[in-house]
Amino acid sequence: MSSKIGSATSRIASGSPPSDYLTSGENIKWSGKPAAIVILGRGLLLTAFALFYFMSMLGYNGDRNLLALALAVFASVLMIMVEKRFGLIGGIIGIALAAVAVIANGVSWFWYMFPLVFALIALLLNYIYLSRVMFVITDRRIITRYGIFTLRYADTGVTKIQNVTVIQPWYERIFGFGDIYFATAGQEGGIDYESPGIKLRKGGAVSWENVGNPFVVNRIASGVVNPVGMPVVVINQEGPQMVQPTSLPGQASNSDRLKELEELRQKGMISQQEFDEKRKQILEKL
User: Fold this and answer.
1) How deeply is 46 buried, as exposed, middle or buried, from its count of CB atoms within 10 A (0-12, 13-18, 19+)?
2) Which of 63, 150, 190, 279 is surrounded by the most beta carbons within 10 Å?
3) Long-range contacts for 235-238 (Cβ within 8 Å, ≥24 apart)?
4) What's residue 200's pLDDT?
5) Is the pLDDT of residue 77 over 90?
6) Contact indicator for 146, 165 with CB cutoff of 8 Å
7) How many Cα atoms occupy the beta-carbon half-sphere of 127 within 13 Å?
């Protein structure tokens, strides 16, 4: 018996599909990842700038072309702007190598490959991260998995989630991406991670960043978290707006909705006025 449990745990910890995380009778409503173009895009841009830097410095070494040197320094600045870790390191090394090349009248060509090496490492780590990260909405939990070398996993019961919020800045709206936040009743939101993609919010929220079709995901999550049709908050460039979730197929019966509504009132998650209004709406449909 213990060997079976150990085998299952190892399989889940290795980065298995969402179905391996389900409990008996639990159903997946939605599963996905951050947009690949966003996660891998940083590494690809960093690699392109590092390659441009390498070619520019080779041009400077050949005939001491100041324009080539200026382009190399510019590419180093772009590397710093694109990626905060390996891009910062590669960009600073690139600028330092350019300064050394000016003082020493050029250095060996292979030194100029250092920024490119850091860029390729960043691209590889982004690929590994994308292959491991997982966002899942079930009829019981919000599940998040992420990590590169250390796999981290957290799930939050839907009864602990107070509201679902979408934040979509103008630049993400153009490409159809957005950030989804699940505000929880706890103090820490269940996740401790500071890198782009998934973060802990001190107010008590689990965040999924760079999600494609965020309003579709929001509608699915809201249908699970707010089965009685309570409004959710959507934030875009027009400001915060209250949106009524769309009813989903297979929602609970009217009697179940009344029970869930009473539970929300007893837990203090809705006011007496909201309770009376929602109860009236449900009774009118009987």
Assistant:
1) buried
2) 190
3) 235/165, 235/166, 235/167, 235/168, 236/166, 236/167, 236/168, 236/169, 236/173, 237/169, 237/170, 237/173
4) 43
5) yes
6) no
7) 8
Backbone angles phi, psi at 30, to 5 degrees: -165, 145
Helix (H) or strand (E) holding 86: helix 86-103
Residue in this structure with the two tokens 């072309």, named with its chain if needed? 65
Quote the tokens at residue 146.
């992420």
pTM: 0.64
List, in sequence order, every residue forming a beta bridge with 30; answer none if it has no partner: 137
pLDDT digits 0-9 by tens, 141-156: 989 888 888 778 888 8
Residue type, 47: T
Residue 73 and residue 102 in contact, taking contact as beta carbons nearer than 8 Å: no
CB proximity list for 283: less than 8 A, separation 6 or greater: 254
Residue with tokens 């460039």: 237
* Region for residue 29 given its phi and psi (left: phi exceeds 0; alpha: psi -120 to 50; beta: otherwise): alpha
pLDDT tens digit string along 92-134?
999 999 999 999 887 888 999 999 999 999 999 999 888 888 9
Q: Where are the beta strands (DSSP E) in 15-149?
A: 28-32, 134-138, 141-146
Q: CA-CA distance, 239 to 78, in Å (whole number)?
A: 31
